[in-house]
Amino acid sequence: MNLLSIGASYRTADVAVLERLTIPEPDVAGLLQRLLAQPYVGEAVVVSTCNRVEIYAAVSGFHGGLGDICNVLSDHSGIPAADLAAHLYVHYGEAAVRHSFRVSSGLDSMVVGEAQILGQLRDAYHVATEVDSAGRLLHELMQQTLRVGKRAHAETGIDKAGQSVVTAALDVAADHLGGDLTGRPALVIGAGAMGSLSVATLTRTGVGPLRITNRSLERADRLAEAYGATAFPIDELVQALGEVDIVVSATASTEPVLTRERLTAALAARTSTDPLVVLDLAVPRDVAPGAADLPGLVVVDIDSLATSRRALPAAAETAAVEQIVAGEVDNFLGWLRGAEIAPTVAALRTRADEVVSAEMRKLISRRPEFTEEQRGDVSRTLHRVVQQLLHSPTVRVRQLAAEPGGDQYAALLRELFDLDVPLATQADAVPEIGGKA
Predict the structure, then answer these.
(1) Is 70 a catalytic residue?
(2) Which residue is catalytic, options 23, 50, 202, 212?
């Protein structure tokens, strides 16, 4: 069995596609059962959030496993497999391990370093455990994935990386608004992870009044209630834009939310002599490309912040987590190589027991006068001799197998001792596939 992860996220799919792919919590167990019913899928874990839908699986072949999982996702979403493929990223073997660890560390999140994904992964693993869809391989992967995520947050400041982006953007906004944002009317567009972080940061900064809008008004209401802000429907956006000095836009839309027409109308309605400062923290951008040059408008986006010294701490923390992930991937692959030789070592010991038993039968047939006690003594002696002879080589081969290229030792043992060890079909396996991510 080999690891395969397939998914779609805000990086590869628009909201409409993600909505169709999203698996409601009550339906996860049923989808896991459908995955396990596929011929190439032996284990499965399903992760479904507002920004990503991912399946981690243990498969007996790359192409077969890929086809099985894509077909299940296609049936679930109603999106033809050929169309769905354009929105999926695929990771196999080592790349699947690395992707899993990067996800748990917050490196693949819309808000870099956000810790919410850890809880979502934990919930996904819990459901898979209840359904019994996680075997030895995925149990180990998910346990190590959760551990790596916790380590990243404990040993680095990655959880502050997203906040550093918001803080840096607000510093730029302050430069354009006289240096102090206290009491400035503000608006947040989007109630997802980045929107929530922006609301929390703006509240601490002392802006106000603060308004929130979102495609789902219910979600905006919940966020507004938590921070003493006011929520309003997205169709009232133009009017609200004309009444504020600061806008933080952080939606998951694949199309610009702040079009030139909307911003032109909002700027025309403004009475303030200060510029309207829009902090576009969305990827892809929420502000239309042709709108940034409008008089009275200042647009600060991710690209401009990336070159700002204010954003450097986030880059440093990200690099530290990447280093942790790289080391943990090597450790996991070492465990995996060691685990792969275990059936071969077990087969060798079984072969040794069979030889001892065969020789004991020959001895008994030639020496029928041996008592039961004598036969027992001889049998135990033979077994001890064989086990002592095998002990050092098998311990050493496990150590060697955990090193890069260690899979050759299992093959060598099978060849030397003519061992019959059932192996998962690997005829269509490939060394590593890393798709869009």
Answers:
(1) no
(2) 50
